[in-house]
Amino acid sequence: MTALRAALGRLVGGSSVEIEGAPPAEMSVAPDSPEQIARLLDFASEHALTVLPWGSGLHQGFGGRVDPDVIISTSRLAGVIEWNPDDLTVVAGSGTTLGALDDEIAPRRQSAILPEAMLDATVGGVVAAGMSGWRRLRYGPTRDRLLQVELVTGDGRLVTGGARVVKNVTGYDVPRLIAGSFGSLGIVTAVCLKLWPLPDVTATVTTDDPERALAVSYRPQAVLETRDGVSVFLGGPAPEVEAQAAVLGGDVSTGHSWPDEPVGECAVRFRVAPVDVASVLTRLTTGHFVGAHGVGEVIAAIDSGEIAGHREWVEARGGSVVIERAPGAVYESVDPWGTAPGTADLQRRIKTAFDPLRVLVPGRLPGGV
Amino acid sequence: MVAPADSLVSELASIVGADAVKAGDLDRYLYGGDAGVAHGDVSVVVLPKTVRQVAAIVRSAIAHGVAIVPRGAGTGLAGGTVPEGPAILLVTTRMNQIDIDARNQTAWVGPGVINLDLTNHVASLGLHFAPDPSSQAACTIGGNVANNSGGPHCLAEGSTVNHILAVEFVTAQGEIVVAGSGAPDPPGLDVRGVMVGSEGTLGVITRILVKLLPNPPAIRTLLMAFPEVGGAAGTVSDVIASGVVPAALEMMDRPLIRAVENFVHADLPVDAAAVLLAEVAGHEAGVDAEADLIGRLAVDNGAFQVRRAADSDERELLWKARKSAFGAIAQIAPDYYLHDTVIPRTKLVEVLDQIYEIASRRNLLVLNTIHAGDGNLHPKFAFDASDPEVVAQVKAAATEIVEVSIAAGGMLSGEHGIGLEKRDLMHLVFSPVDLDAQARLREAFDPDGVMNPLKVLPEGSRCFDFGRPIPEGAWV
After folding, report:
1. Are A193 and A205 in a shared domain?
2. Is residue B160 within 8 Å of A140, Cβ to Cβ?
3. Does residue A274 belong to any structural domain of this protein?
4. Are B385 and B335 in contact (CB under 8 A)?
5. Which of B322, B346, B366 finishes a domain?
């Protein structure tokens, strides 16, 4: 395969790069432009190569395993391309880390409300994985802030979907389709995100009754439960935060201290109707977890042998249990997504529309799409 | 108008009952238009009540080789429900069931539920459906989903798509599927997100799971009057940059203020060049400080009046004024042409100046209502359509407005959709490759062009194969 390596090297004008934590591949490359990615994917389509896009690797545990010929890192597509603080929008290269984005915009007290405590993740990876942070309760999911995507489709076309304006219904919502597509339709090269002003004051209040907390507080940023208890995360003008904290009545601390991701070899995300969060938590007898009340998501470290039982219970209630990370062998016996959605055939056709030769992460999506 | 085949009419009648099929010339004419200017030929109108009936209608359409055009209340403005070619007009207004899940703050609703009816229905629970287009007393949720509708209050809460958790729809193959879930992030591609705003071209939506929001405990509504349009626009920029996200931030210019005042008598400042209507909503302890800040920014930008609605009656009157723009214009001229473009919020003054210049050069009366907070322009030309020269000027001005909006970094539509009206302008904002990708996406849903054909994407959008342009003269 030396010839393949030489050919790929010529396309990106460089040699293979080391990517920590990546699976073995014939070659790993870090192109410095969307056009280079287009040439690579065109080449991959021509030669039926399997391609794995790579940001920080933080979300690579989701979905079906991929045995790549080529890994394409977005690390050289990093940096803020256009920031309009007065319009509350930002355009960033997909390889920009959340930390680097924050370094730029946080001093003006603006935020794209991306996952908290995930500073090494890339914006492209977070978008591709459809990841939202804990403040989703107040601000909605990341996909609702995704105004525009620039991507390279599986067959090497440079496609832009959406626009750099905060309200838009001009053609199909390609950005939302890309959010959560896990690289199966194209490699994201840049995104435009809608920003929010950060609240004047933030505070965290402990409580022992999450249901009451949701009922008595007006649109808190998050209500999270761990083995240490339940915290209500407030944000807003100082008088409002004080008044809300007084009504909640627990211990108040200044600022937000977000819980750590659950530690453990195997972690899953329970996604359920918001009222079912409490029931999910009662099923978790061991291991760390973070439960997002009012949202319907619980991240938990569990034994992989428990997945099937949880899944039966959750899927019967219209939810899902998806693997976030697990030892490689688990994926051979447990489907990473669970029961395939009713639209699986349609999803397969959508995949073909963007990646006709299935070079991008084949089998990563539910139902082997 | 070509009469529909008897066999199709009787087949549809056997699916939905004869009273739910309208095949007479008058009905077909009346259903041939929307609230905009386009008009087309409807083969037959059918009003199903259930998803099974919809699936059977779609299969029947496939068998007869006619298209399906889904339609709600017909309040659309871009011709999205106006057929081009033989089509069954599938009207969803009888699909108006509401099933509330109060604990999860969601509801499954039929596509024919009227927007305002849903909010009224859940008011006793302290909840509301956030999208509130000006037509909310008449438009359907299904139509809102099809056009990803907005409204003044989508500034803080986002357009319709942010409030749709799942959709059940009948595919172009006549199958019933559900995309999305009451649980967050269901596995797989976000088909729900693509269905929203797809203008009936990807399937017939038969049920919608909507998110309901808690009513804010406190609301403050401000009316600010400015001697110059620039002061109002400057206030908008300053408010957005200040860190306050108002629930709504609307602008009206002098011609519109006068027309509206004549119509609703809300004691509007008729001497102002522009007024801003701002609303902050939230916790009782937070809203006054935000309202004060907005008022101060207005004064800094030259406002000569800042009026705070004293009670909910005054608030409703001010909103009635804002949402009565259409009725008000009817006093001025028999016809109007309402535009919808969106621009970056920082470009308001610049683009408004150009719009006034276009109108004055073409000797047209333009009245502006603007969802200023999100840069969504709605210039309205009031005119008399019996004069063909004036109609030509209005059309030319409309194209120019699109061009200046795009030049400012804007887009063709903020909330009305593309439909027929702007279909042939899509190439102004998307490359051939972008349009091809959208055409491929559509093909994945509807390879045979059953669903609302000839809308949204211009002819020839599907023009590439495997990333390589098809050679000129190739037979495809």
Report:
1. no
2. no
3. yes
4. yes
5. B322
Which SS3 state, helix, strand or coil, does residue A194 take?
A: strand
Could you say which of B103, B245, B342 has the minimum Cβ distance to residue A165? B342
* Residues of B with Cβ-Cβ distance to A353 under 8 angstroms: 437, 440-441, 443-444
Interface of A with B in 273-312 (CB under 8 A): 273-275, 295-297
Q: Rounded to a whole number, what is the distance in Å from the CA of A60 to chain B's nearest CA?
A: 15
Calpha distance A330→A340 (Å, rounded): 18
Can you give the CATH number for the domain in which A238 is found?
3.30.70
* Of A45, A160, A197, Cβ closest to residue B466: A45
- For residue A345, being part of any structural domain is answered with no
Q: Distance between CA B298 and CA B222 in Å, rounded? A: 10
Residues B279 and B205 in one domain: no
**For testing the chain B interface, which of A137, A170, A293 should be mutated: the one with the most B CBs within 10 Å?**
A170
Q: What is the pLDDT along chain A (369 residues), one digit of tens a residue?
A: 678 888 888 988 877 899 999 999 999 999 999 999 999 999 999 999 999 999 999 999 999 999 999 999 999 999 999 999 999 999 999 999 999 999 999 999 999 999 998 999 999 999 999 999 999 999 999 999 999 999 999 999 999 999 999 999 999 999 999 999 999 999 999 999 999 999 999 999 999 999 999 999 999 999 999 999 999 999 999 999 999 999 999 999 999 999 999 999 999 999 999 999 999 999 999 999 999 999 999 999 999 999 999 999 999 999 999 999 999 999 999 999 999 999 999 999 999 999 999 999 999 999 999
Cα–Cα dist B74/B71, whole Å: 6
Tally of domains in chain B: 4
Confirm whether A361 is domain-assigned.
no
In chain A, the largest separation of any two C-alpha atoms, in whole Å, equals 69
Q: Are residues A169 and A107 in the same domain?
A: yes
Q: How far apart, in whole angstroms, are the C-alpha atoms of residue B152 and residue A328?
A: 50
Mutate to test the interface with A, among B106, B189, B211 (most CBs of A within 10 A): B189
The residue type of A244 is Q
Q: How many CB pairs under 8 A join A and B?
A: 263
Closest Cβ–Cβ partner in A144, A169, A343 for B414: A169
**Is position B458 within any domain?**
no
Pair (B228, B269) in one structural domain: yes
User: Domain holding A19: CATH number?
Assistant: 3.30.43.10
Residue A141 lies in a domain: yes
With H, G, I as helix, E, B as strand and everything else as coil, classify residue B196: coil
DSSP label at residue B450 = -
Judgement on whether residues B209 and B222 belong to the same structural domain of the protein: no
For A177-216, letters b (16+ CB in 10 Å) and e give bbbbbbbbbbbbbbbbbbbbbbbbbbbbbbbeebbebbee
> Same structural domain for residues B338 and B439?
yes
Residues A17 and A88 in one domain: no
- Identify the burial level of B90 via C-beta atoms within 10 angstroms of its C-beta, where 0-12 means exposed, 13-18 middle and 19 or more buried: buried
Q: Residue B457: list chain A partners with CB under 8 A.
A: 171
CATH of the domain at B244: 3.30.70.2190
Say how far apart CA A228 and CA B59 lie, in whole Å. Answer: 56
The number of domains in chain A is 4
Residues B346 and B280 in one domain: no
A60 and A94 share a domain? no
Task: Provide the terminal-to-terminal Cα distance of chain A, rounded to the nearest Å.
Answer: 28
Residue range(s) defining the domain that contains residue A168 = 80-197
The answer to whether B438 and B430 are in contact (CB under 8 A) is yes
Paired strand residues for A158:
A152
Considering the entire predicted model, what is its pTM? Answer: 0.96
Domain final residue, candidates A197, A223, A245 = A197
Does A171 reach chain B within 8 Å, measured CB to CB? yes
Is A337's CB within 8 Å of B217's CB? no
Burial label for A250, CB within 10 Å (0-12, 13-18, 19+), is middle
